[in-house]
Structures are given as C-alpha cells and as structure tokens.
Write a structure and sequence with these properties.
The structure holds 2 protein chains of 2 kinds. By secondary structure, chain A is of the alpha/beta class. Helices cover about 30% and strands about 25% of the residues of chain A. In chain A, the strands form 4 sheets. Chain A has a 6-stranded mixed β-sheet with strand order 6-7-8-3-9-10, with helices on both faces. A 4-stranded antiparallel β-sheet of chain A has the order 2-1-4-5, with helices on one face. Chain A has a 4-stranded mixed β-sheet with strand order 13-14-15-16, covered by helices on one side. Chain B is an all-alpha fold. Chain B contains 14 helices and no strands. The chains are: A alpha/beta, B mainly alpha. Chains A and B meet through helix 2, strand 6 and helix 3 of A and helix 8, helix 9 and helix 14 of B. Chain A: Keywords: ATP-binding, Nucleotide-binding, Transport.
Chain lengths: ~325, ~350
C-alpha cells in the first residue's frame, strides 16, 4: 500500500553530540520509522533528548552510531538543499520579524524550490494557496505577523512548512504557549493534514491528553531505554504510559487518560447522576480525603443540585461541592 | 504593497534622486542656476566657462560620490541588520568604519616607513581602497565570530562598540608614532568628505561598489530566509556559512570602499534601511535592497546639499550632517519601541 509506506527509518542508532574526539551520548539504541499519512507524537520528560532526536532526524546533527535512512538512502548523503525539499519544520524559536504579511511568510516556504532570484512560478503560487487553504488562514493573508495571536502565528508557520511541500513535517512543541482551544485546534489540524496531504508528521509535545486524542503513533522516550512505539490506546492498555512518569507520587490513570496523583483516588461510594458523581469524586480526591473517611456514603441529586452526606450520626445536606469539602475538612481531619 | 504602487514609489524615488542630483550641481559657493544646468544637459553650453570647470571637476564627481556612498552604506546596513537579526546594526555602529580607518592608517604609516610615495596616483587609490576593505573585513570577522557565540543582540552592539574603541585606540597609537606628513594625510582623510574625489578615485570607487553589490543580488533569497532566523533558513536549504562569507565580503567591500573614499560617515547604514521598511512596508529583500539603495542615495545627496549651507561659502563636514539627521531618527525609532515588530 502506497499510503502506509515508511519514509524514514532508523535501526539502533545512537544520538548525541561530538566535541573533538569526545562523544556525548544523549540516547542510544533507538529504532523507529516515520510513515506517510500518520501523525506521530514524540513524548518524554524534559531533558531526555527529544530535541536532539528531532535535530538528528532533521539532519542538523549527525548520528553517533548507525544511519537514519531517508527514502532508503542514508540521511548523510543528502545535501541541505535536497533535504529541505523533503523535510520542513516548525521550531520553538521565536520569530523576530513582524513586518511580513502571512502570505509573504508562506511564500518563504517556496525558497528551496525557486531559482536564484526567488521568483514564484504559477505552480508555486498554487502550492502557496493550497497551504493557506489547508490551514484555514485565508482570512489572515494580508495581516502582518506582529498583529497575529500566538495561535494564528502557529497556523501561519504550519502553512509555511506545508508550502515547503516536503513529505515529512516536523514540529517542535507546536502547542506550547497556546491556550486550550488553540491547542486542540492545532492538533486536530495536524491530524487532518497528515491524512489529507498524506504527510508524515512528527511532533514533540507535553500535551498528553490532546496527544492521545489525536496521534496515530506515540514514541515514548525515557532515559536509558529504547523508544517505546505504538498506538496510544495500545500503550495505555499495556500500561506503558507510566514510562512518561519517572517520579513517584504520580500515576497514569487508564480510565481518564490523565496523569493523576497516586493514592488520591476517591474511595467513598458516591451515587447519583454521572456528571455530578464524577466531579464530586474529583474534588474529594483532590483534597486527599479518601484515607480518613470511612463509614460514610454520599448521594447526589441533580435537579436541584444537592449533596447528601450519610453517616451513622445522621445526614448532612449541601448545596454545592465547596461547602461539602469545607465541612469534611473541618470535622473529619 | 501592490505592484503598481511599488513602481510608482520607485519612480518617485528616482525623480527625487535626480532633482537632488541637479540641485547638488547647482548649489555651492558659486551658485549656478538650476535651469542653466538643465539647459547644459540638453546640449547648450553654460554662460561662463568657469561654471563648466566647477561642475565637471568638482560638483559632478562629488554628487556621484554621494550617490555611490549612499547606496553602499545603506546596502551594507541592511545586510548586517538581517544577518545579525539586529535592527540596530550598521557599519558605523559595529565598528566596521573604524576597521576601515585602521586599514588606511596602517597603510599610510607603513608607506612612510618603507618610503613609498602613495595616496596619489592609481596605485595609491587602490592601495587605500584595498587596505580599508581589509580593515573592514577584519572587524566584520571578529564581530561575526562573537555573534556566533553570543546570540544576544544587545551584547553584539556592545561588542561592536568595544571593537570600535579598541581600533580607534590603535589608530591613536599609530598616529603618535608617525611623522607629521602622514599624520596630516590621515587626519584630512578621517575628517571625511564627499568632495575632492578625483576621477581616478571615482573609477576605483565605482568598481568596488559593483564588486560589492553583485553578491548581494545573488543572496536576496537567502536574506529573505534569514528573516526567520538561522535554524529556519537552514531548514530551507540555505547554506549559512556561505551566506556569512558573502555578507562579510560584500559588506566589507561596500563599507570599507566607501570609508576609503569619503572617510567615516555615520548613521546612513543604520537609519536608511529602516526608512525603506517604513516606506515600502515590507521585509522582502527583493524590494528592500533597491529601495534602501535609492533611499540611501537620496539621503546622502540631501545631506550634502545641506552641508553646502546654501547662500554661504562655508561647508559643513558631511559626517556632522548625517549624524544630525540620523541620530534623532534612530532615537525616534527606539522610542517607538516597535523595532522587533516592524523589523
């Protein structure tokens, strides 16, 4: 099948930096492949070497051991110009220029394809329009970069990378500094682009929940271990998500798909409508009451919202979760 | 900016440039009426033969020098601002002009030490131009070495300032040990002037300008990519190393060559690219490069006209006039504080 063809492949490579004769290995024994049409998310704690891996895949740092194969040929056999036609990037680096319009920014993406003077052909203009359409920023084309919000700027940067028209798109933390809505929007945009444009998209992110929702493949990176690769849902079932959490105290909750504090689950039986029960439990778990509270039951009623705390001594009624929590804090700890 | 208004702006710029050019031929200690010069251009002889001499021997080379110097300094400023991603960069601010001065100083002192009679004649013209270019390139190399290590724009400016002072100090030491004749030659040179350019020097200047501008035409696309920073430029297939060398050579030749002929001229290199950005409202170097060139020519012609103090026989030093016009402009830009937003 053409669609699931892998475009970039690596077998047991080591990555890191070389200074003179000294090598500083950041990670070793990494095997992976990038597939067209799929959104791949690289996750891992800070400092584990995600950026180094990204730079190595971009061809900016050579591998210390082993070869990365790009379209079956070693990455090192490509020169900058050839590489730029295959791989395009969105980096974390801040753009200082503000005078360009969004359209001019997207036009820059055609640089690897144009002649010495950078004149855009009809084909180039088509690709530029396509990139602008694909990212839904038609309404921004004549706006200058300094007038954009962070989310809009990120979309424009993605459009620029699309206009570069390579098969691989690499984004380093595209959702950092964005608000929740923009984070979701960008990730869903990328997921859509992977399919509609048949690109191999690799992103690094710390946004676990959104990533689980959108990614086809997870690469989990942890110190001193090979990459753990798989579909996020499979990794959850195989209990491999805890790899992301080196410290104690936190644990990945396979039910909610979130990272939660260990031992902070609500063990008190709560009954009532689903939504209300979920958030009462969440509030109690957050406060860490679960150990101290025994021999009690909670019943929630949806309309009008009220909470009944049933104990041996009798029943207390509360109109909101806050007063329940205040009561428990005062009397039970 | 739409294509039509772009052409109109360039056309207007050209007209202003031409008008100032003729104005510069007309004003000075001896006033030659504007319409007489226009008539001369259409082939009619001038009223007085002395006017012919004044124009051909003094004012014409001076006006051409002003145009070339304006173009060269603006284009080197634009290149440095984009390459170092620093809106305050420019050949004078970062000490490139001082470097050129050092080259000339060493040349003059060495020539006296070895008993060469230079400064006049063809050999002299080229030796001054080349030594200034070498001095400029030396400072540029040091600056880009520093810029490569520290990526902070303020640090770069401070380092540039330090290089400038260090180089000036070396020049001072050299002057202290040099003979009266060389000292005089150097002092006259360092005061800076657009006038007094011989045709021989003018040809050398023209050759250096063409040599310096040629690589810029080839690098426009790379400079556009540099707007997004080195990492993005590299991801778009731009060879940063080659661009760095291109920038150093081109800027060195343009700024060094100009300094060799006119002496240090401040603020043109830093202020004119910003004027071009304000007028053309773009970051595209395919427009900004010719735009800065024409704006630079206009500004320096204008400064030269002002320095003639119309109606008086006195002439102000050109460096003083450019500073008086350029310094407030830079301060105004800083006060607007949107350097990074409009850069």
């Amino acid at each position: 099948m053409e669609k699931t063809k892998s475009i970039l492949k690596a077998e047991k490579i080591s990555i890191g930096y070389r200074k003179g004769n000294k090598k500083k290995v950041v990670a070793e024994n990494l095997s992976f492949q990038l597939t067209k049409g799929k959104l791949t998310c690289l996750l891992g704690p800070n400092g584990v070497g995600k950026s180094t891996l990204i730079k190595t895949i971009m061809g900016q740092i050579p591998t210390l051991h082993g070869d990365i194969l790009l379209e079956e040929k070693p990455l090192t056999s490509f020169n900058l110009q050839e590489l730029s036609k295959i791989t395009s990037v969105v980096l974390t680096e801040k753009i200082i220029t503000g005078i360009l319009t969004v359209r001019q920014l997207v036009e820059l993406g055609r640089i690897p394809h144009t002649g010495l003077l950078g004149r855009l052909s009809k084909y180039d203009l088509e690709i530029i329009d396509k990139a602008i359409d694909a990212t839904n920023i038609q309404y921004l084309t004549e706006i200058r970069l300094n007038e954009l919000s962070d989310g809009q700027l990120q979309k424009a940067m993605i459009a620029r990378a699309l206009a570069q028209d390579g098969e691989i798109l690499i984004l380093d933390e595209p959702t950092a500094h964005l608000d929740l809505v923009n984070r979701l929007e960008i990730m869903h945009l990328l997921r859509g682009l992977a399919e509609s444009e048949n690109k191999a998209i690799l992103i690094t992110t710390h946004d676990l929940e959104v990533a689980i929702e959108t990614a086809d493949i997870f690469w989990l990176m942890q110190c001193g271990m090979p990459l753990v690769i798989g579909m996020p849902e499979d990794l959850i079932i195989n209990q491999q998500m805890d790899l992301l959490i080196p410290g104690k105290g936190l644990v990945f909750d396979p039910i909610s798909g979130k990272i939660v504090q260990k031992d902070k689950k609500c063990n008190i039986p709560v009954s009532g409508p689903q939504i209300q029960v979920k958030w009462v439990k969440a509030a109690l778990a957050k406060k860490g009451f679960s150990q101290n509270l025994q021999n009690m039951e909670i019943e929630v009623v949806g309309e009008p919202f009220s909470i009944f705390l049933k104990e041996k001594e009798g029943t207390n009624t509360f109109q909101n979760i806050e007063s329940l929590v205040d009561f428990l804090q005062l009397h039970k700890t | 900016m739409r294509n039509n208004s772009l052409y109109i702006t360039f056309f207007l710029g050209f007209i202003i440039c031409l008008t100032l050019f003729i104005l510069n031929l007309s004003i000075g200690s001896v006033e030659i009426p504007f319409h007489d010069i226009l008539a001369r251009l259409s082939g009619k002889p001038l009223l007085k033969t002395s006017w012919e001499t004044i124009i051909m021997e003094f004012r014409l080379p001076k006006a051409i020098t002003a145009i070339l110097a304006g173009i060269n300094l603006s284009i080197s400023g634009l290149q440095m601002q984009t390459f170092f991603r620093n809106p305050l960069a420019g050949p004078y601010v970062l000490g490139i002009s001082s470097g050129a001065g050092l080259g000339v100083a060493i040349m003059l002192m060495a020539s006296s030490a070895f008993g060469w009679g230079i400064y006049f004649g063809e050999l002299g013209v080229w030796s001054i131009i080349i030594s200034a270019i070498l001095g400029a390139i030396l400072v540029l190399l040091l600056i880009s070495l520093t810029a490569w290590r520290v990526r902070d724009s303020m640090t770069l400016l401070i380092v540039g300032l330090m290089f400038g002072s260090a180089v000036s100090a070396i020049i001072a030491v050299l002057s202290y040990f040099s003979g009266a004749e060389q000292l005089k030659l150097f002092t006259v040179w360092s005061m800076g002037s657009l006038g007094g350019t011989s045709y021989l020097q003018l040809w050398g200047f023209l050759a250096a300008s063409i040599l310096g501008i040629f690589p810029v035409i080839l690098m426009q696309k790379s400079y556009n990519a540099m707007l997004l920073g080195e990492a993005y430029a590299e991801s778009m297939g731009i060879n940063i190393k080659r661009l760095r060398w291109g920038m150093i050579l081109s800027t060195g030749i343009l700024a060094g060559g100009t300094t060799a002929i006119c002496g240090p001229i401040a603020f043109i290199g830093i202020a004119v690219p910003h004027m071009a950005r304000l007028v053309f409202k773009t970051g595209d170097h395919r427009i900004l490069l010719p735009g800065s060139a024409i704006a630079g020519a206009i500004v320096l012609l204008f400064c030269d006209a002002v320095s003639q103090l119309p109606g008086s026989a006195q002439t102000l030093p050109i460096n003083a006039v450019t500073s008086l016009i350029g310094a407030p402009m830079v301060i105004w830009l800083i006060l607007r504080r949107n350097f990074s937003r409009e850069f």
